[in-house]
Amino acid sequence: MNDGLDFEELTRKTRRLDFEDGLTDLQIGAILLVMSLGAAFFFSDAGLTRLTKALTLQREITLVALAGIFGCFMLVAIGSSRLIARVRRDYFWKDRGEIVPLPWQVDTWVTVLATAVYLVLMIFGLWVVLRGASDDDALLRLLIAVSGVMTGIMYLGMGLSIRLDRYLPVGIVGGLLSGLLFFIPLTFSESWLAFGAIWTTVLLISGLYTLRRTRRSMAEANHG
Amino acid sequence: MADFTLPSKFDRMIHQPARLAIIAVLAGCESADFTYLLNATEINKGTLSKNLSALEEVAYVKITKGYKGKIPNTSVKLTAKGRRAFTKYRRQHRRFLDSVD
User: Fold this and answer.
1) CA–CA separation, A208 vs A214, rounded Å?
2) Which of A2, A96, A101 sits opposite B20 (nearest CB)?
3) What element of type H or E holds B78?
4) pLDDT (mean) for B65-94
5) DSSP string spanning A180-219?
6) Contact A154/A114 with Cβ under 8 angstroms?
7) Kindly report the CA angle at B29 between B28 and B30, in degrees rounded to 5?
8) Which residues of chain A are modeled with pLDDT < 70?
């Protein structure tokens, strides 16, 4: 047998590399913030009024503008990935060599579990709404709350499968706070803002803490 | 009789320690460069090169030689065949360990 070689840990260690410096957390936090701010605006009364008016008066220009906004969002997402790769190549991974991370880091069992929980919570939420035990926006809020819980489960599962301890509190705190959104009487637009605030804050704390720790250990290694 | 896969039935191409370390590292990423593989596996350059060639011969890995700026760079990627073989190996290994326990 391969005595002493923990090959499973070698795989996990390589997978963890994408999260070791905290840059991925900051990137995802920023993307979720922009996405939720955009959604909060479009689904607010003012946003919906303006959008409807614009679509009625200048349909083509509005559609082009919307496509442009989406394009800019994608450019920022792709651009930030390239920037992260560059920072890692020149700074964090300078002497250790580099990898291209897996495009999807979440294990199949985690995705299946998160999807199952999503469906169960959706059914429960629908049951609550249909019983009339909630307000008008509850159905729309349910979508956001359950998506947040699903995101939390994914972080939790990823933390367990690649043994990345900081993703356990990230998943639990983000997931639970997102779930609570269903029970708070917010409008759909406000729910988007709250969703963005929760996940951006959680990921920002996780990312900045990790980035600081990584820089400190690099500085210590350089001086030691 | 206990139902387990004997080590002799393991994929020999993967079961050898140096190659197992290489494949295990590559399974955790889309691709890795030669320097990363050297550091992560703690194998010396000669052994790493030799085993990468062996893995390339059976199409378990794909090696791409190029340049990053002016510096030569060798990038290694686990192929779909290699990933399947490693998944099978992990399953057999786990079953074997379970049957021994």
Assistant:
1) 10
2) A2
3) strand B71-78
4) 92
5) HGGGS---HHHHHHHHHHHHHHHHHHHHHHHHHHHHHHHH
6) yes
7) 145
8) 1-4, 133-134, 224
For residue A162, the model assigns a pLDDT of 94
Alpha-carbon distance of A135 to A129, in angstroms, equals 8
pTM recorded for the entire structure: 0.85
Place of tokens 């009339």: A132
The residue written with tokens 């002493």 in the block is: A4
Strand order in the sheet with B71-78: A99-100, B31-33, B71-78, B61-68
Asked if A15's CB is within 8 angstroms of B32's CB, the reply is no
Does A136 reach chain B within 8 Å, measured CB to CB?
Answer: no
Nearest to A2 among B17, B26, B27 (CB): B17
| Interface confidence (ipTM) of the complex | 0.89
Q: Where is average pLDDT lowest: A119-123, B53-57, B59-63?
A: A119-123
Residue B7 and residue A1: Cβ atoms within 8 Å? yes
DSSP A125-165: HHHHHHTT-S-TTHHHHHHHHHHHHHHHHHHHHHHHHTT-T
pLDDT digits over A38-69, tens only?
A: 999 988 888 888 888 888 888 888 888 889 88
Structure tokens at A70: 């989406």
Hey, is the C-beta of A2 within 8 angstroms of any chain B C-beta? yes
Residue A112 CA: distances (Å) to CA of A57, A116, A179: 45, 6, 19
